[in-house]
Every structure is written in C-alpha cells, then in structure tokens.
C-alpha cells in the first residue's frame, strides 16, 4: 500500500520549536514499521533550513521536506497560515508519478494540510491528533497557550477524516464529546522501543538517597510544581527533573526559574535538581537510575514517559488520566492518584519509596506489561489493519 504521512512541522531534534521530540519520534517509528511491513511510505515534513536536502531515505521510507513557510524554525502559531500552501504542494506532488492510497495526518496542522490535499480526491484520510486543544484548555486553564484557531479548526478537521486514531481511552471520549461518532475512532496505543528501553544497562550517577525522576518538556502545566510541593512529605529523597532546554540555558528559561524559586520558598532546594535536555537515546540511563518515576502532567494523551519508565523496570506514580491511566495498572505496575490531588501524590510517593519489595514487584510487572501490550510491532500491525479497512470501505463499487 502507498501511504503518505503528513506532519506540518519539521524534525525538532535539530533545533528548538515545533512538535515535541517524542511526538516526532512516534511518527518516524510508525513510518519505519509500515515500511518494514512492505508498504511504500513517504513522510512529509516542513523544510525549515535552506541547506536541508529536499528528500532523504530513512529506515526504508522516504522523507520529503515541503518548502512552505520560512526556511527557519517558527512557532506553531506562525504555521497556521501555511496550511493551504502545504496542501496545494501535496496535491501537485501527488498528481505526478506517485499518489498515496491512504493519507495519515499527524497533529492538527498536519491533518489540516492532508485534508486540504485530498479534498477533491477519493483518497481516504486517517488522523492522529496527539493532543486536543479542547482537553488541554479544560485541564490547563490559564496555562493553555495554543493559537486561538486551534480548537475550531480541530472541530472542522474531525468532520473531514475517515477515521481518527486515539492513543488513550480518555482521547476516545474527548473525540466523542467533540462530535465524532464512536465508530469513526480507533484506539491504537503507542509503542515502546524495547531495544532502547529495558531494565539491563547503565544507569545515570546518583546519590545515596532515594531518587524520584520526572521527565518533561518543562512547559507550564506539566506538574513539576506539585512534585516540589510534596517532596518534603517523602523525606530525604531527591527529585530530578529531566527535560526542557539544554542545561546551560536553564538559567534563562522562565519555567525553570519559577521551579527553582518554588523549591527555595518550600525549603527543598537541596533536594531538587534540574538537568535540562537529555538526548532520547540516553533517557533509559536516567529511568534506570530512579526508584520511582512520577508522571504528573496536566495533560498526557499518550503516556509515553510512563511507558518508557515501565519498560526500564521502574514503577510509576502518576495522575490517573490520559495515556498514564491506560498504561499504569494500579497496584500492579505502579500507583495512580486523582489528577491534581497533591496530598494523595505525596502520600503515595512516601509509601512506595519505603517499600522496597513493592517497588521490585511493580517493576517486574511493568516490564511484562510493556512487552506484551506496547510493542511497536503491535502498533504497526494495528495501523496496517486499520488502513486496509479504511481503503476497503472507500474503494468504489464496480458497476454490475
């Protein structure tokens, strides 16, 4: 099958801005899995530097970099006006010697560009939102910072797609509340790279005292404030926060400064360490160095951090929402607490940090759960079956 994957952002691993790195890696891994299954896959992303090659072959699929918008990293809000040009470029490209049998849009801007490109064709469109503006607004409140056009455009997009792919049960419910029929939503959980994330291997250096790890983008609403407020309840433990800009730029990062000031006010500055950005291939060493990984984001559609931690054999304590609620089995692979319940979070962390046998059992069960239910092979197979069903339903019926 010829499959076109559309992302309106550029690869964020080379420079700041655009999609979170984890989201882009998800899209790239989907492309690689489908190519490995024998499909002809092309991934479209925006060209954001003049020296970038127009095409590249990666892991068996072709990357095509679309020359729309400025050849530089720009905020998402500035890309909204490029969507129509992006769609027209795809339309022109697909009338040449290659046209997809199915298009899969990623994130709301990628989905809008894909929908624009196929609107006058019979090509079916599948959409993965990765996050939904309406749910982010409800959970983050004043900390929500997406462009104002996002929510109405997402509502319009769900009316244009054949199937929406949700990554958690919460996202299924949210799409239904937005007006999408349940039959038009498919739940496909993300996968975990078991070759990278596993219990055996090196661990990052640590102190003698217990370690709680938080992996985040260091944006407002990701729950690090809650962890700083409860670290005193846990006792003599360290809280290590990984993510955000590189370590040398943390001093000028507004959220990092606020977290450090909060730690000072709460008298726990000596227990809180901000590490900054860590290459994805080194994250496993940080997970393995922790006694517990805390997932306290105000919004987590895929629960990627909880899955990576579990794959490394580390129990998770997190808010029961989004992909975290799907990934973590309470009292089996970790503990779940009501979202925003800071006191319950502190009590659960304190109990688990002193329960060596419990952490050991949770960690072993976590590895088994990821290897059984969250492999990339399983994700690729589910998408392949979904694509085949969508194409079959869209295929024109021959006249008798």
From TrEMBL:
Domain (Glycosyltransferase subfamily 4-like N-terminal): give its ranges: 22-195
Q: Which Pfam families does the UniProt record give?
A: Glyco_transf_4, Glycos_transf_1
InterPro entries referenced in this protein's UniProt entry, alphabetically: Glyco_trans_1, Glyco_trans_4-like_N, Glycosyltransferase_grp1
* Transmembrane residue ranges: none
Task: Give the Glycosyl transferase family domain ranges.
Answer: 205-357
Superkingdom, taxonomy of origin: Bacteria
One GO MF term attached to the UniProt entry: glycosyltransferase activity
> What's in the keyword line of the UniProt record?
Glycosyltransferase, Transferase
What's an example Gene Ontology biological process for this entry?
Answer: carbohydrate derivative biosynthetic process
Q: What is this protein called?
A: Glycosyl transferase, group 1
What species is this protein from?
Answer: Salinispora tropica (strain ATCC BAA-916 / DSM 44818 / JCM 13857 / NBRC 105044 / CNB-440)
């Amino acid at each position: 099958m010829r499959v076109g994957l559309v992302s309106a952002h550029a690869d964020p691993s080379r420079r700041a801005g655009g999609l979170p790195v984890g989201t882009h890696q998800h899209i790239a891994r989907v492309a690689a899995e489908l190519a490995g299954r024998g499909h002809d896959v092309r991934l479209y992303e925006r060209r954001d530097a003049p020296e970038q090659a127009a095409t590249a072959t990666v892991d068996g699929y072709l990357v095509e970099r679309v020359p729309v918008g400025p050849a530089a990293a720009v905020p998402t809000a500035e890309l909204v006006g490029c969507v129509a040009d992006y769609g027209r470029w795809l339309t022109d490209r697909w009338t040449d010697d290659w046209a997809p049998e199915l298009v899969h849009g990623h994130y709301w801007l990628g989905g809008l560009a894909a929908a624009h490109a196929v609107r006058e064709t019979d090509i079916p469109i599948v959409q993965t939102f990765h996050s939904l503006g309406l749910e982010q607004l409800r959970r983050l409140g004043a900390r929500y910072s997406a462009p104002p056009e996002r929510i109405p455009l997402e509502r319009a997009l769900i009316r244009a797609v054949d199937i929406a792919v949700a990554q958690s049960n919460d996202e299924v419910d949210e799409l239904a509340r937005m007006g999408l029929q349940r039959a038009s939503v498919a739940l496909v959980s993300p996968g975990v790279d078991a070759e990278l994330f596993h219990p055996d291997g090196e661990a990052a250096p640590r102190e003698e005292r217990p370690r709680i790890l938080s992996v985040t983008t260091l944006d407002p609403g990701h729950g690090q404030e809650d962890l700083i407020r409860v670290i005193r309840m846990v006792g003599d433990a360290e809280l290590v926060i990984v993510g955000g800009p590189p370590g040398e730029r943390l001093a000028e990062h507004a959220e990092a400064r606020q977290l450090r000031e909060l730690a000072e006010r709460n008298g726990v500055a000596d227990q809180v360490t901000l590490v900054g950005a860590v290459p994805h291939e080194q994250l496993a060493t940080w997970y393995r160095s922790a006694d517990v990984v805390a997932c306290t984001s105000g919004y987590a559609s895929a629960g990627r951090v909880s899955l990576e931690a579990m794959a490394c054999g580390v129990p998770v304590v997190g808010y029961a929402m989004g992909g975290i609620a799907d990934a973590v089995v309470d009292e089996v692979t970790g503990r779940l607490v009501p979202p925003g319940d800071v006191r319950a979070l502190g009590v659960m962390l304190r109990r688990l940090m002193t329960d060596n046998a419990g952490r050991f059992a949770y960690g072993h069960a976590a590895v088994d759960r990821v290897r059984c239910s969250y492999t990339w092979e399983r994700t690729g197979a589910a998408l392949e079956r979904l694509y085949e069903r969508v194409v079959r339903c869209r295929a024109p019926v021959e006249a008798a």
